[in-house]
Inverse folding.
């Protein structure tokens, strides 16, 4: 059925693309993880196939990952090491699904990683961030519209970049996106975000398809402005620029604004299921990471019963 390990990996990546509708970014990452495994496996156990894979070999691979050095001369973080193992387990599931005899992926455990603190901005910090933008020029109006839209919708940066000019209905204050895993959802826009997007579009004199375009580099009008579309990296750099300009105490990123969107809703009384839908999370367990910082009941218990909050009779 299969010939070589590289061919198996390519078939798996084709499966992710065609049948699972995985994003290009996901496929790129899985390719990197699995090609790293293939090079290690082929050099460590020449002549062996995936039929020969066992837990002892997986443990050796994990030892290799623990000592692997990245481009900056740093060893891989535990969470990064886990990404390689997660990709391997998914690959094994694919092989078994296609009647290939190999190691059962459920036998490979993932060690628990240290819980990372959830970074988000308070409402006042968001205000400092968005007002740090100089809106006297069209580029600044675009940047303000992007920041407002990110906080208003909780969009992932890849979702924001894919937005087209005609996609966003400012009158209805909503639009649809296809998110992670090909899941569709409706996104809602706050009044303020809608106002800034409208102001930005009023400044635009072009008829390019992308909603957010760059203002530097060569102009190519033959592809309906597709090459003018802002990239995720461009938006990440833009957000970092305004975080520094606003002198925020949080090293905020685009994803920090997504966290801020969720915590803002939950803190103001939104239910977890609704926030799950708006974030596009497949499992509510993913959304529950926000509850420990937005749990009003626990906050009220602390306020009412901790001796440091009031004088005792």
């Amino acid at each position: 059925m299969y010939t070589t390990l590289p061919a198996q990996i390519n078939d798996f990546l084709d499966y992710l693309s065609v049948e699972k509708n995985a994003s290009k970014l996901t496929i790129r990452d899985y390719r990197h993880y699995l090609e790293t495994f293939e090079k290690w496996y082929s050099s460590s156990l020449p002549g062996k196939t995936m039929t020969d894979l066992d837990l002892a070999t997986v443990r050796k691979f994990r030892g290799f990952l623990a000592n692997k050095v990245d481009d900056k001369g740093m060893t891989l973080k535990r969470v990064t090491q886990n990404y390689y193992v997660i990709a391997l387990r998914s690959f094994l599931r694919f092989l078994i699904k296609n009647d290939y005899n190999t190691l059962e992926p459920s036998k490979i455990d993932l060690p628990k990683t240290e819980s990372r603190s959830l970074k988000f901005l308070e409402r006042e910090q968001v205000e400092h961030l968005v007002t740090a933008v100089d809106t006297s020029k069209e580029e600044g109006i675009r940047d303000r519209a992007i920041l407002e839209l990110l906080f208003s919708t909780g969009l992932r940066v890849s979702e924001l970049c894919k937005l087209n000019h005609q996609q966003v209905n400012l009158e209805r204050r909503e639009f649809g996106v296809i998110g992670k895993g090909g899941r569709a959802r409706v996104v809602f826009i706050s009044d303020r975000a809608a106002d800034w997007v409208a102001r930005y579009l009023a400044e635009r004199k072009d008829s390019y398809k992308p909603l957010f375009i760059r203002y530097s580099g060569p102009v190519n009008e033959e592809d309906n402005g597709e090459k003018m579309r802002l990239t995720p990296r461009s938006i990440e750099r833009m957000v970092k620029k305004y975080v520094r300009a606003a002198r925020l105490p949080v090293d905020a990123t685009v994803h920090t604004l997504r966290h801020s969107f969720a915590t803002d809703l939950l803190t103001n009384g939104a239910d977890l299921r609704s926030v799950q839908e708006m974030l596009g999370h497949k499992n509510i367990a993913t959304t529950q990471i926000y509850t420990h910082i937005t749990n009003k009941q626990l906050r009220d218990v602390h306020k009412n019963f901790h001796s440091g909050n009031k004088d005792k009779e």
Notes: The chain is about 55% helix and 5% strand. The radius of gyration is 23 Å. The first strand starts at residue 174 and ends at 178.
